[in-house]
Protein: 5-taurinomethyluridine-[tRNA] synthase subunit GTPB3, mitochondrial
Organism: Coturnix japonica
Amino acid sequence: MGLGGGHKLMGWGRVFLGGGVVALPYAFMGCCVPPPPLTRCTLCSVAPGDTIFAVSSGHGRCGVAVIRTSGPGSGGALLSLTGSTELPPPRLMTLRRIRDPHTAELLDRGLVVWFPGPQSFTGEDCAELHVHGGPAVLSGVLRALGRLSGLRPAEPGEFTRRAFHRGKLDLTAAEGLRDLIHAETEAQRQQALRQMEGELGRLYQRWGETLTQALAHIEAYIDFSEDDNVEEEVLSQVDEAVRALEQEIAAHLQDGRRGELLRSGVHAVIAGPPNVGKSSLLNMLCQRPAAIVSPIAGTTRDVVEVSLNVSGYPVVLSDTAGLRDATDPIEQEGVSRARDRLQHADLVLAVLDATTVPTDPAELGAALGSLVPPSTPCILVLNKADLLGGHKGALCDACTHGPPLPPTTLLSCKTGEGTDSLLQLLGQQLAQLCGDPLAGSPTLTQSRHSTQLHGCMAALVLYRQQQDVGMAAEQLRLARRHLGRITGHVGAEDILDVIFRDFCIGK
Ligand SMILES: Nc1nc2c(ncn2[C@@H]2O[C@H](COP(=O)(O)OP(=O)(O)OP(=O)(O)O)[C@@H](O)[C@H]2O)c(=O)[nH]1
Ligand SMILES: [K+]
Ligand SMILES: [Mg+2]
């Protein structure tokens, strides 16, 4: 092919001439193919390929910020910015002057670390620059990195995505890492850390292995049963293993969404008749005047939501309109929103006025029944205890702990009396709802997992219904595929975007 035939390749190539580089259009390089890939550019020391960089510490002014790179150009970038000819010893922090290689301008003096792959977070060559966290330092270093060829800013979650692709972590561990970054309470941190360390991934992997083994036995039976080398007994052993697995998965699915609640927060709703002090209670718990309080019944209309950390558990607490047959159309809308919130509540704080609370159990039961949806956990708060007169009221043990009453406490939002016992009851309820993140087998934390587990269970049920051994084996394969999609061991490209989208840039 002549020179003219190479029109598709009319890019600019680089020729190495005695240590120097001359840019020439490919068409003039005497062939129609681009030159062989560079291993490292003589001028800027950067190796070609996709190398990403980002600030990995938080954003905003800070003492020290960490800029991270990953990809084949990391080593060259480190050499360029530090103006050295030799990389620092792997995984050891080294103090270096950091310059913009294009202008030779001094940007900062900081600690640099070199992580040659595969012993790095992503498995690729990585570098870290620990610099002063001022915005001008950061933008200077980022600009210098961006000018190096082969380097580009990272997408959100791209470092973790690369780690996943290099087999450094499975998807459940990546999700654990994401949750750890977002964890706001101690219990959330404990659960996320456990997942990141791979406990949940190992559980799902073990189940996958059980299915692989069952499949191997079935296939052996199909292939060799005629030779009488494989006994019928094999099939009943497989049945037994599948049944045990089914039970284990069912128990895992029936954990009352504990892991999910802990991950995304327990939705607790304050409900009750008008003017009993619901908004006062919300304000007291979040320690700021988030909701309007007034002596006028029907003050609250919109749902007012605050996030709380109660005993290490995350709570999304909502204050709602007082429930009554309202005539005002705006209040009616408020009441309807309150009822809607109640339908989706994980926990209800039912507030009644201690001075007017029915003492007849049937009447009290009916009052609670009109507030709390059946089978939703509830705490009964008898507010305005300060108005109970001389003896100030007290509850016997039976009434405090129920049943038939829900756990109950006397409270005064005015004086703060009873706050401790309310927080104690709340802590107990949350512990029951979320479980202890450190105890027992790891909990289900994501609806993505439960969808796949339900799919796996459905396949196992079909397995049992099959008369034909070949068809039964197919169901086991399907069940295993569902488990594989949770950990990412089976074609999971479509879910990767969803998972990594929630990461921040630099992670
Ligand atoms: N004495 C006394 N008054 C209280 C207490 N808690 C609230 N109040 C008063 O009761 C009135 C109503 O309080 P809110 O918090 O607005 O009651 P609410 O249930 O949110 O009322 P709506 O939103 O209208 O349904 C206000 O005047 C509060 O100051 C309490 O513990 N003791
Ligand atoms: K009110
Ligand atoms: Mg209110």
